[in-house]
Every structure is written in structure tokens, then in C-alpha cells.
Amino acid sequence: MSADMKVKATNESVLHVFGEYLQTIKLRLRKTSKATRLAATLLLLVAFTGSGIAFKRRLDKAAREKAQGRKLLRRNSGLRGKDGARILVVPYKNTTAKVQIYDTKSTTFDAHRRLFLAPPKATGLSEARTPSGYGSPSAQAKPGLNIAFLHQYLSIMSIMIPRWNSKEAGLLISQGAFLALRTWLSLVVARLDGEIVRDLVAGHGKAFLWGIVKWCGIG
Hints:
This protein is mainly alpha-helical. The chain contains six helices and five strands.
């Protein structure tokens, strides 16, 4: 019975506070002029109407893109963006997604051509020439870990990572750092698992709880 009375008293106090706030709002509204209330009402209507129109346009645009994606799915769409990138439509989950493919600039080809035009003679790539001037391995050249492979590998790496302060180098270094951190955390978690099992079997309550706290902190 006392519990019911406490719940009833709590509800009454909440209703009382809500009533006071409502009364304060009514008093402030009465003090404002009719022009102010009319302007506020018009602004509210304009805001709701604008939000509804924008939301409807967004839904219509998404529906049009989805219908267009179904038509162009797995086809050479040939769509071009404003920046000249080619747009392809590919399946993604239950719908489609757009993939932008940017053309490689001719200056990039000219900058990388020097890496393949004159390879060292020891690689065997300079013995034969293609019509475009690029070196190609001779028929007697055997694939393997040799100077030719090393030259091609370093040429490709210089294209993938143009300089050490580039975005590609940062991504590669961060990927390696996170992989090393993941390996170290795996070793730490394995050691903590062993300590937790040891303390549980030995009946060390405080050490067991502290191990759980450390495991949750790492996780």
C-alpha cells in the first residue's frame, strides 16, 4: 500500500511540474502580440512545408537512381560525371551502387614510362623492344626471383608509392602498424586469459576480478 502511495505521489509531482511549465508558456504567449504569433505560425508552417518538400525530392531522387541502376546493372553504362569520371552501376546488398572510375592522365603515363624504357642490361629486358618502345623479357628469360623481377617489382612499387610523404605511403605504414598492434594485443589477451583461468582455479578472488577488469579494458 505504501508503494502505491509513493508512485501516486511521484505522478502527482510530475503532473504539477508539467502544469507549471504549461502555465508559464501560456502566460508568455498571452503577452506577445498577434502579429508576433502570426509570424511565428507562418514560419513554422514554412519550415514544415520546406522539410516535407525536401524529403519528398530526396525520396524521388533515390527512386529514380534505383530504377536507373536496375536498367544499367552489369552493363557498360557509359555515364560520365561532371569531372569526366566514368560511372558504373554495380549490385550492392539489396540495391545498386555507383562506382566512379577516373581516367589516368597522360602526364602520369609519361612520368612512369622512364621506369620501363631503359632497364639495366643485366635484367634481360632491354634485349627486345615492343613497337611502343617498352622493354619486354626475351624468350629465353626464365621467370623467377632474379634481377629482372626485382627491377619490375621496384618499378611497380615506385608507381604505387610515389613518395614517402604521400597518402599511399601513409596508408601502407598505418596498415602495417595496426597489424603489428593487433598481433601484440592478441598475445596480451592470450596471456590474460591464462592468468584469469589460473586465478579462478586457485580461488584468488581479487586477482580474478582484476584480470576481468583488465580484459574488459583491452576488449
